[in-house]
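Our consortium's second objective concerns turning raw sequence data into structural hypotheses that experimental partners can test. To show how far this objective has progressed, the report includes one record in full. It was chosen at random from the queue rather than selected for favorable results. The single chain below, 312 residues long, was entered without modification.
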Amino acid sequence: MNGICRDRVVVITGAGRGIGREYALEFARQGAKVVVNDLGAGGDGAGSGSVTPAAQVVAEIREMGGEAIVNGNDVADFDGAKNVIDDAVSTFGRLDVLVNNAGILRDRMIANMSIDEWDSVIRVHLRGTFGPTRWAAAHWRERSKAGEAVDARLINTASSSGLYSNVGQANYAAAKAGIASLTVVASQELARYGVTANAVYPTALSRLTEDVFKAAGWTGESEDGFDPFDPANIAPAVVWLGSTRSAGVTGRVFGLRGGRIVLANGWEAGPTVDAGRRWDPAELDDVMADLVHRAPENSGTDGIRPVRVDTA
């Protein structure tokens, strides 16, 4: 199959359903050979899981004339993460693109959150991103040191919740914020091996978000026939990031929704004061108030900074 990812070998975690499924199908349409990883568990991580969803995606890819295999490993398990990367290399000869997409939700207000609800979400998202990334990085480093010209891609999944916060998602937001920072660090560490690292924060209807969309009254219909929350809308930008065409882009976080692409600006130093000596706590009242007053408001959950009306 021809396309902008022709013959590139791609691993996608959490690719049995939703956005991950759309990634797998679009990469295949663009000529990639795909490792479809999925445990098949519920959206909250519960259940023994089944590789059936991943197998169905692989069957679809093969029906369209593409190449794909199933992998049912738990990517939050360190050995399981290694097995995913090893499957790509043993089957297709190498790895070119890793898309870390697997995730769960276990929303709860902080005062009610159990330690299991915290740990499970951190494990799947943060550890489940680190594990495959670690083994992929080792693979790319070995190839680079052997003299091969590597042109590889790491694509992680952040969230607007992690970047801009969202009530009831302390565990999820903490994990996703960590993934955004991990991505920037990875971009700096892996550049020497010919690897770029970027992240996306998608907004689309999936198992993890369907309850939120339903609560908001979304029906999937629109006047012009375009559903901005169709998960298939997210795939084109991710596939482009996985192609050789994206070589000049690294260390960035992109927001994707419908036909909209947003480049998120990370933390940056704001208003500053320096006394040139140690502060006395009692003298910081006005100092801290002035810093806050001079700084812009934090972004809302949509990533947009509210306009401050100064009534002074």
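The partners drew two points from this record. The domain at 9-263 is CATH 3.40.50.720 (Rossmann fold). The chain has one domain: 9-263. Both points have been shared with the crystallography group to help prioritize constructs.
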